[in-house]
Amino acid sequence: MITLCAAAVLVISCSSAETTIATSTTAPTTTSTAPATTGATTTTTTLPSTTTAPPSPDRTLPVPEHAAPAIDGVIVDGEWDGATETTLTDGSSLVLMRSNETLYVALRGHSLGAVNLAIATTDVVWILHSSAALGSVLYSEADEAWTLIHDFDWCCRGANNEAARLALLENEGWQANIGFAGDPGTVEYEVTLPWSDAAVAVSYQTEDTEPAFLPTDLTTEAKADLIGPFTDARRFHLGEWYHLAPAGS
Fold first, then answer.
1. Beta-carbon neighbour count of residue 140 at 10 Å?
2. Cα Dmax for the chain
């Protein structure tokens, strides 16, 4: 049985094009201090086992195969068995697995917050955002910097609006639960975008904490890649991100 930390629900607003928790939809840049876990390791585990493996020396995260989970923000016993688990800087965990060609990612945080899941292929970078609504930005590779070619188009504000989430999945290749659906701090993603051998990184923030990141050893510049505002041009430090590789074929 996986135990999740619960916390009081806080207000998240997504009313503007570039908002973060309480004021905007991308992770906020507050000045409050949150304890960070140092020396976090990437592990491959059969949940709910606590057995850990040593860090991957080549920054590759294996993505094992398993039956598809429900995208509802609730992790039930057995749903993520065998998934690869890795840890953010604040001790929150991220688990990854696949069902055929579809990627599934779940963040188990400590309370309601904003999550940015970044996935980069050779020529595009997606930032997939979940808080009080779902939305994404898309960057295309250019000579000097990555260029914004798709800005946030917010949707799926209702906790039980499955039709809107399935439309997002069809139109953009991903869906997730919003923060108000499921257990506070738990966000589950379904991604049909190309992801094999893609680079991946994550930011997560609640109202009263500084952002937490994956990988845990990102430089200051690489951390800034993952939080807003997302401007028309941006440089991404993809060499610092993890890479995804299908496993268990």
1. 12
2. 49
210 exposed, middle or buried (CB, 10 Å; 0-12, 13-18, 19+)? Answer: buried
26 occurs within a structural domain: no
- Residue 214's DSSP bridge partners are 202
Q: How many domains does the chain have?
A: 1
The phi and psi torsions of 223 (rounded to 5 degrees) equal -65, -40
What CA–CA distance (Å, rounded) separates 19 from 12?
A: 10
Evaluate whether residue 99 is within a structural domain.
yes
- Host domain of residue 210: 42-246
Residue with structure tokens 């570039």?
18
- How does pLDDT run across 73-90, given as a tens digit for each residue? 999 999 999 999 999 999
pLDDT tens by residue, 186-234: 999 999 999 999 999 999 999 888 999 999 999 999 999 999 999 999 9
